[in-house]
Structure prediction request, 684 residues.
Amino acid sequence: MTTAEGRRAARSSTPTLHDVARAAGVSLATASRVLNGSERKVADSFRERVEQAADELGYTANISAQSIARGTSPVIALLVADIADPFFGLIASGVARGADERGLVVTIAITERDPERENRILRALRGQRPQGVILAASRSEDGGQESPDELAAFSSLGARTVTFGPGGDRGVQIDNHGGAERLGREMAARGYRTAIVLGASEGVRTSDDRLAGFSAGFESGGGDVVRTYRGGFAREDGAESMTVALADGVEPGTLVFALSDVVAVGAMTAIRDAGRTVGSDIAVCGFDDVPVSRDVTPQLTTVRVPLSELGYQAFRATVDAEWEQPEADLEVVVRGSTPGID
Amino acid sequence: MTTAEGRRAARSSTPTLHDVARAAGVSLATASRVLNGSERKVADSFRERVEQAADELGYTANISAQSIARGTSPVIALLVADIADPFFGLIASGVARGADERGLVVTIAITERDPERENRILRALRGQRPQGVILAASRSEDGGQESPDELAAFSSLGARTVTFGPGGDRGVQIDNHGGAERLGREMAARGYRTAIVLGASEGVRTSDDRLAGFSAGFESGGGDVVRTYRGGFAREDGAESMTVALADGVEPGTLVFALSDVVAVGAMTAIRDAGRTVGSDIAVCGFDDVPVSRDVTPQLTTVRVPLSELGYQAFRATVDAEWEQPEADLEVVVRGSTPGID
DNA sequence: ATGAAAGCGCTAACAT
DNA sequence: ATGTTAGCGCTTTCAT
Prediction:
């Protein structure tokens, strides 16, 4: 009976609109009108009484009830692969900022980059009847063909789906190819001729684009990508890949391009652990410009991605009727980890 | 009319339990029983038909409707100061993991360490009638007297409030004093005799405890905390405080204790920028052991706080009838940033 | 074991 | 301008 009891307790102690109306001596409708957004006019005397009653009782509208009565709920669902990863943390902060501005609630779920899990979550999320869904989850499968059905289900439910990369009703695009190309070109200009790439993940759009872009840029500048190592997205994966790479042999003057800063940071550790030096001996560059890239020594050369702003844009994309992503080139940020050759 | 239209559209396209029941040729009650957790027995033949109908229609229960009918909603509200800060990101990941295990939804809100904002959010959150509220928001005011009313409102509403630090129905405790004391003692044992502290924030419980603990430990080992610098919780605040400290003069062999790793990392940058050396010249230690502490060079000596696990505990605390925080001492992790003296 | 029906808290026609 | 009332989608007594 705990449940029933608890329910009764919760209910009995929470004033309803009905209570407020009665206390104010007005009808339910009037109370609703003054308390919740309606445009309808209510005489000041009534308005006051209702407001006072609501205040005294400590009334707060039950969102669930409103949602079902209105047929729409004030929630935005956000799916991220890993909220502890700064990449997603920054995106989430942008989303949260936007939602706050509009008085919407953000619901968050972690996919762990597992498509199956992602679909499960998406399915469960449907029950919330959110106004929008933001998928920043699938660095491991964007462009993949797993969740279109689940996503479509949302659209037909009236919720806008926004994805980082392709797939949803709207997409927030990150010019991975362009940014990486510029980085490659810049690195070639700084004298690097040999590069190896870390963190490649076949079929992951982001990964493929960054790799292709970098190769194009680096080669156009006379450089050569000699090897590519697959690996995950975590710091440890970067260290692991780098260790393997070192075992394979890495000449001084080689440039290591890690497909994300987090991976780059892991690689730097591995380089150091192997008794080599980051910078003058082995150069390293990453992608994203998450805060940690400025904390390492030497600081990491990377491509700045305005993650928080993109999160904000993703939010706007879910709620605004008209929306277009502001164009902005990804900027290369050269720091100490790529001192240049000669 | 957009609203009305949209609503109609959303509604008409989403199958309700009613639709399922009709399609399966059973009553609403039966459909409800098979689809949603009820213990009641339903004949297999009926069960099958209902399940099939639900499947074909792509039915998903409307959580809002269930919430209002049941009088309880499956949501846990999480308040954090800044989701992009690894400290909170890790806590959030633990909370999310727990919620996922129990099929609960996590709602997230950002307080920006602003008590006023926090209260506003808390108030709005009430409308969700969450089962629990986790407050990991107030590093800037735990122990303060701002939100007790809002928190109390939740309790009387049937939601359990869990805070990091004191204040809620239950609290997840971090032994800041003990950990810092051990750190101080250890540092003294490594030969440090002079320390300055960065990131102190008067009235912030966490800050006060860490400062007091460290002082006690360090002094008991023969050391002396000579100066304390106030400052915020961000990397930049650490850099700033450290710059001021350097201007005041910092002798070689001094130990800098930053009240959090993030601040410590900022301090390290400032030290370097000033042409000094972290480690042999000026030693640095922090608190929390967030990932970045292992990425910097030299790696940062700190006190390990199992943030993600604590987030998980906080979740358990909100939902479990019986709960007790597992005791575990905070462990000092000595790394390169405090090589020791002599 | 199944179904009818009375809510849950709120909104929005539709009267008045 | 205010009130009446019929839902919204679902759960749960209470009959059968």
